[in-house]
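mind reviewing this fold:
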Amino acid sequence: MMLSRRHIRVKVMQTIYAFKGSESDDFSKDQKFLLFSIENMYNLYLLIISLLIEVQKRAEDDLQKKQNKHLATKEDKDPNRKFVNNELLKLLKDNIQLDDEIKRNGHVNWELDNEYVDVIFKAITSSDLYADYMQTRVSDFKEDRSFIVDVFKDIVAPNEKLYDYIEDKNLTWLDDLPTVNTTILKLLRKAKATSPEKYFTPKLYKDIEDKQFAITLFKKTLLNRTAINKEIALKTTNWDSERIANVDYVLLQMAISEIKNFPSIPVKVTMNEYLEISKEYSTPKSSIFINGILDKLVKEYEADGVLNKIGRGLM
């Protein structure tokens, strides 16, 4: 499972932020865009995981060229194949299900963008990590896995040229990148020599409920915008509305909608999630502002008995 509820909330926030219509409009197109931008994360996952396979192929080609050199040295003729034979990279390369998904995907074409495969290959082979790893000629799955985990964490994920390439390919991917990199790192860390085929093609949503959560949160927030905005206005009489960040408005609208429409999500969870998102996407003081407004509203809802939370520990 790749998507957390927080990332779903961020995607909903971005779609609502970009929405220019009113609540009476048909926003099926916007809902489609929301689901598309969520599903597009999987394309980014395939792009990055396939890069590791391409790097392995590039290493293989490199050895082949050295062996075929006119004046091949003893080392060229009998090279250390430890990296090329890395068992975790081999596991990725031989995964038929993953291979099918990559081939079917229109976003992955490293042959066209092979200079980035070169960039990553050179960054790996010139690193101390690689030099240490290649001091011996044999290894087991555990050592191979540990090396690839470190390579991904220290070389691939933070690579600035790769970051620029991803930004050029698709602007929304930049927000997805930390989630996708974390997913890949988790999969690599927990991989076993006997990992099943489907292991490297994880599900995007945890379950159907998560997809429904995205749709319902999006719809309920937009459909009740006028009423929600009135509630916000009553609590921000001392604030100049022009000075309230647009992102804060959207986050407040979503948080109020979530508190009212999702009986099984505890109020504390909702509040914490939106405060964390505001720290990342809005102004330094946004979380204090949002917390203050939500706190007042929740106290009112409790006093009026309109908080329809079900289950234990939901307040």
In short: The two ends are 28 Å apart (CA to CA). The chain has a mean pLDDT of 90. The chain has 15 helices and no strands.
